[in-house]
């Protein structure tokens, strides 16, 4: 039996079961009556009526073995129908005592609810949803199950959906009112959207929708044109470098192994590939192993495998990784998933070692890319399961080892997906239905302005492109010629702003015009395209516009549209433009050539950070508001085209990516550029795919809660877009993570429970399980505080409050109306204060670049001997260890008396260590201290 038919068939049956019997999960472990009674009593005290809480639907009840807490999730019902996203939860300890309860039910719902009798049939609702979503009308639609409309019907795919189409009658909240609606779920054939849409059951009007697919806004590439303006550290006058010639594998291969870029490496620029072992059957977090042929017969291996074809593919219980490079959007995904040729074959020895050469082109690296994608998905699965994203929480597995959760939902990880470029996405349907990760190829271009005269500014520099006029990339020889400053005769700075027809038209004819941004009294003529047209009319063959900020170092992107512009234009930084303008005085003419060179594509399947980011959407979606309400409680929901939820999913995903790629000896104040590999950048200067680098250093990342409602000079709100909004949340979690590390030390065992990094991750995941549906930033903060109270008895409360207050989410901050306010950010206000009983905590290492100033390691660089000394106190002898950048111990632990460490220290023999960078770790009762050292021989 083929993998695809087995999984898709099971997927349909599981989805039908979930919708036909919404309490299916709860039936495995019934909600305790005292919990429901306590929930009802507390909800009434909060202003709800007895009718509002009379018959809530128990969507799931799960027991968290690590905390001893039972989570019971509820949904409001009126007239026997659920109210979409009107959710509640009650959390009890092992003795059944209610720890706390939350709810977001609709007050007086019975009075607000219209008649439960629809005018549209469910078949008509599917057609109405398809039309409202801009999809083709369904063909040959027919019912597959026999159920009540309140519980959910399932129709075939109608030729418009990758899966069968669930339909359910419910009430939807729209602008403070309840509307009888059909909820229709359609997975687009191109996998770009997985819609969960609600259409008015009387009129067929699309009233709101949410998307199980979390895509990057437009594309990462388009998004970062704006980001590059703000990354002042990136590309600062450094010469443009061509991509590295190749990334070589180590050559160390073995049976039962994958040759990959292993965590904590983020991408190929951080180290060579290595052979890592496949997790074996019986491993702690993947009991059926990583690769399907390892699974014992009689489990899922009999159907979820290709053993009969003698193929040993990158497929297992947690993830099926394969190539989806087909350019045919319709049906391409299902067809490739059904093909045995689209996954690399490791042979009977399971040796997944394939060549990788960046210059050879993406298709020549396909097997290596798919193998790396397979590895990263499995690693994130295992690490997150160790910290609480387990089967009961709706993790992604074909077969569950316990009776918790539904299974049947490994990640479909698609390498070199042909449906797009410069992007990635992740679809998260409800538990029991397979998520899909699409990883794309990325443009690898070098945009260089090479100036040969005057000699004082000679060199190669990065430039930004224009969204109007001819593209530089279409010019075989580039934009080359003499560079002459414009003189419009009316503007400041010698008329270089090009606000009117130039007075030096003769000098500009046949040459490249140099123009300064802004400076025009008529606002319209400040448009980039208008400035270029004045030069164009004078006979210029192209234009260079430089930023009016003389300190800016980022290349200037030129926005706007104008079909009448016929000459190419580029943008450069204020620093370069100011120098160039100064050099072209007194009639001096510059000489330059701007070219765009295309190299072999970057492959997102080699960027471990982006893969972890995408997987992270599945984590936050399944954990927030129960895995049976996946993606409806943690992603954007749209009402008549307007988003009315404050999205935090991008922030959680960035945090997970940063966390997975943290190396022993790293420092929170260092700048981290997420996605710099696919942007052709560096880890020290970017550019990445965000507006700012992540750093605990406030001078490097000063984002606060108030940035959401702070307009730019042009009146736009940069931090209301989902990715930039997420940056604020991710930066705050990043700060929190590092404060935990400074307090509890760093543990390079990513599966462990000790160490500040592990404690912080666990706290974030625990908070997701107990936070409100569609939380805002302050609800997310409160969930973290509550999680710390439940699991740590509030030991970190003061620290948490201080971290959030530093980023504007203090005690007096205001959340606004996160559900019903349009625009959704109305009422947000930042504050930096603490609660009355909270203590001020001096946050460690916010603006320094040394992790442990109390720890000395000298000489540095060292050769054969290294002395380590510290003045830190400890109640027991200290332990000194040296590890490499992957956390592997290279010098066994040495136990040293405290007095000796504080006086003469300990001398370590480093003569047998290979030259390179290592991390010294000193464990004390007050924490773990680290510093980096270089060994040279």
Automatic annotation (TrEMBL):
<dbReference type="InterPro" id="IPR050371">
    <property type="entry name" value="Fungal_virulence_M36"/>
</dbReference>
<protein>
    <submittedName>
        <fullName>T9SS type A sorting domain-containing protein</fullName>
    </submittedName>
</protein>
<feature type="domain" description="PA">
    <location>
        <begin position="498"/>
        <end position="579"/>
    </location>
</feature>
<dbReference type="InterPro" id="IPR027268">
    <property type="entry name" value="Peptidase_M4/M1_CTD_sf"/>
</dbReference>
<keyword id="KW-0865">Zymogen</keyword>
<dbReference type="GO" id="GO:0004222">
    <property type="term" value="F:metalloendopeptidase activity"/>
</dbReference>
<keyword id="KW-0482">Metalloprotease</keyword>
<dbReference type="GO" id="GO:0008270">
    <property type="term" value="F:zinc ion binding"/>
</dbReference>
<dbReference type="Pfam" id="PF07504">
    <property type="entry name" value="FTP"/>
</dbReference>
<dbReference type="Pfam" id="PF02128">
    <property type="entry name" value="Peptidase_M36"/>
</dbReference>
<comment type="similarity">
    <text>Belongs to the peptidase M36 family.</text>
</comment>
<dbReference type="InterPro" id="IPR001842">
    <property type="entry name" value="Peptidase_M36"/>
</dbReference>
<dbReference type="InterPro" id="IPR026444">
    <property type="entry name" value="Secre_tail"/>
</dbReference>
<dbReference type="InterPro" id="IPR003137">
    <property type="entry name" value="PA_domain"/>
</dbReference>
<keyword id="KW-0862">Zinc</keyword>
<feature type="signal peptide">
    <location>
        <begin position="1"/>
        <end position="27"/>
    </location>
</feature>
<feature type="domain" description="Secretion system C-terminal sorting">
    <location>
        <begin position="858"/>
        <end position="935"/>
    </location>
</feature>
<feature type="domain" description="FTP">
    <location>
        <begin position="58"/>
        <end position="102"/>
    </location>
</feature>
<dbReference type="GO" id="GO:0005615">
    <property type="term" value="C:extracellular space"/>
</dbReference>
<keyword id="KW-0645">Protease</keyword>
<dbReference type="InterPro" id="IPR046450">
    <property type="entry name" value="PA_dom_sf"/>
</dbReference>
<keyword id="KW-0479">Metal-binding</keyword>
<keyword id="KW-0964">Secreted</keyword>
<dbReference type="InterPro" id="IPR011096">
    <property type="entry name" value="FTP_domain"/>
</dbReference>
<keyword id="KW-0732">Signal</keyword>
<dbReference type="Pfam" id="PF02225">
    <property type="entry name" value="PA"/>
</dbReference>
<dbReference type="Pfam" id="PF18962">
    <property type="entry name" value="Por_Secre_tail"/>
</dbReference>
<keyword id="KW-0378">Hydrolase</keyword>
<dbReference type="GO" id="GO:0006508">
    <property type="term" value="P:proteolysis"/>
</dbReference>
């Amino acid at each position: 039996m083929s993998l695809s038919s087995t999984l898709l068939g099971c997927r349909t049956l599981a989805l039908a079961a979930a919708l036909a019997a919404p309490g299916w999960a709860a039936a495995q472990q019934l909600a305790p009556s005292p919990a429901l009674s306590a929930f009802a009593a507390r909800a009434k005290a909060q202003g709800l009526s007895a009718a509002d809480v009379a018959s809530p639907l128990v969507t799931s009840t799960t027991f968290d073995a690590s905390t001893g807490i039972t989570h019971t999730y509820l949904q409001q019902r009126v007239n026997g129908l659920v109210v979409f996203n009107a959710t509640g939860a009650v959390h009890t300890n092992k003795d059944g005592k209610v720890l706390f309860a939350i709810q977001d039910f609709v007050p007086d719902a019975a009075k607000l609810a219209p008649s439960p009798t629809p005018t549209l049939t469910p078949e008509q609702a599917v057609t109405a949803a398809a039309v409202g979503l801009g999809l083709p009308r369904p063909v040959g639609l027919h019912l597959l199950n026999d159920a009540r409309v309140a519980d959910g019907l399932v129709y075939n795919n109608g030729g418009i959906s990758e899966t069968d189409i669930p339909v359910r009658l419910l009430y939807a909240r729209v602008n403070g009112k309840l509307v009888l609606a059909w909820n229709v779920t359609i997975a687009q054939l191109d996998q770009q959207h997985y819609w969960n849409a609600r259409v008015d059951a009387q009129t067929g009007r699309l009233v709101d929708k949410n998307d199980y697919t979390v895509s990057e806004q437009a594309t990462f590439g388009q998004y970062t044109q704006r980001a590059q303006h703000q990354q002042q550290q990136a590309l600062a006058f450094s010469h443009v470098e061509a991509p590295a010639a190749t990334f070589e594998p180590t050559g160390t291969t073995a049976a039962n192994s994958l040759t990959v870029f292993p965590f904590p490496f983020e991408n190929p620029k951080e180290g060579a590939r290595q052979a890592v072992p496949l997790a074996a059957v019986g491993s702690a977090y993947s009991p059926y192993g990583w690769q399907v042929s390892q699974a014992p017969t009689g489990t899922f291996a009999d159907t979820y495998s290709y053993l009969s074809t003698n193929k040993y593919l990158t497929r297992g219980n947690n993830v099926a990784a394969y190539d989806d490079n087909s350019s045919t959007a319709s049906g391409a995904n299902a067809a490739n998933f059904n093909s045995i040729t689209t996954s690399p074959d490791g042979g009977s020895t399971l040796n997944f070692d394939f060549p990788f050469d960046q210059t050879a082109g993406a298709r020549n690296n396909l097997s290596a890319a798919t193998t790396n994608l397979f590895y990263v998905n499995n690693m994130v699965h295992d690490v997150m399961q160790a910290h609480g994203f387990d089967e009961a929480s709706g993790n992604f597995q074909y077969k569950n080892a316990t009776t918790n959760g539904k299974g049947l939902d490994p990640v479909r990880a698609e390498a070199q997906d042909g449906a797009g470029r410069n992007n990635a996405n992740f679809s998260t349907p409800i538990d029991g239905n397979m998520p899909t990760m699409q990883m794309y190829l990325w443009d690898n271009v070098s945009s260089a302005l090479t100036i040969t005269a005057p000699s004082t500014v000679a060199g190669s520099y990065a430039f930004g492109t224009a969204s109007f006029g001819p593209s530089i990339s279409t010019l075989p020889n580039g934009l080359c010629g003499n560079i002459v400053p414009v003189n419009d005769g009316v503007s400041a700075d010698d008329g270089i702003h090009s606000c009117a027809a130039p007075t030096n038209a003769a000098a500009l004819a046949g040459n490249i015009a140099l123009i300064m941004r802004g400076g025009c009294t008529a606002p319209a003529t400040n448009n980039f395209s208008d400035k270029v047209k004045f030069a164009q009319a004078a006979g210029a063959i192209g234009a260079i516009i430089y930023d009016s900020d003389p300190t800016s170092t980022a290349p200037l992107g030129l926005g706007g549209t104008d079909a009448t512009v016929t000459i190419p234009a580029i943008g450069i930084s204020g620093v370069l433009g100011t120098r160039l303008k100064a050099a072209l005085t007194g009639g001096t003419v510059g000489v330059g050539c701007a070219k765009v060179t295309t190299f072999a594509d970057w492959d997102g399947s080699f960027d471990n950070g982006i893969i972890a980011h995408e997987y992270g959407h599945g984590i936050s979606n399944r954990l927030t508001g129960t895995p049976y309400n996946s993606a409806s409680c943690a992603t954007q929901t749209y009402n008549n085209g307007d988003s009315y939820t404050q999205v935090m999913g991008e922030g959680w995903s960035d945090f997970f990516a940063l966390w997975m790629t943290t190396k022993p000896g790293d420092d929170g104040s260092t700048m981290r550029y997420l996605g710099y590999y696919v942007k052709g950048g560096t880890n020290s200067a970017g550019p990445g795919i965000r507006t700012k680098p992540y750093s605990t250093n406030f001078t490097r990342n000063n984002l606060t809660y108030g940035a959401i409602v702070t307009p730019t000079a042009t009146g736009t709100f940069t931090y209301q877009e989902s990715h930039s909004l997420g940056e604020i949340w991710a930066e705050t979690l990043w700060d929190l993570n590092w404060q935990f590390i400074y307090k509890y030390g760093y543990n390079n065992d990513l599966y462990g429970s000790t160490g500040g990094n592990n404690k912080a991750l666990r706290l974030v995941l625990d908070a997701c399980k107990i936070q409100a549906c569609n939380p805002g930033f302050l609800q997310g903060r409160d969930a973290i505080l509550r999680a710390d109270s439940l699991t740590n008895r509030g030991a970190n409360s003061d620290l948490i409050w201080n971290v959030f207050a530093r980023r504007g989410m203090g005690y007096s901050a205001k959340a606004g109306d996160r559900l019903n306010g349009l625009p959704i950010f109305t009422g947000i206000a930042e504050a930096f204060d603490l609660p009355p009983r909270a203590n001020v905590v001096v946050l460690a290492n916010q603006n320094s670049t040394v992790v442990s100033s109390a720890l000395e390691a000298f000489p540095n660089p060292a050769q054969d001997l290294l002395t380590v000394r510290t003045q830190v106190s400890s109640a027991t002898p200290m332990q000194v260890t040296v590890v490499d950048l992957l956390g592997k111990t290279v010098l066994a632990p040495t136990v040293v008396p405290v007095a000796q460490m504080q006086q003469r220290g300990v001398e370590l023999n480093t003569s047998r260590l290979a030259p390179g960078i290592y991390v010294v770790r000193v464990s004390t009762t007050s924490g773990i201290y680290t510093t980096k050292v270089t060994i040279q021989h």
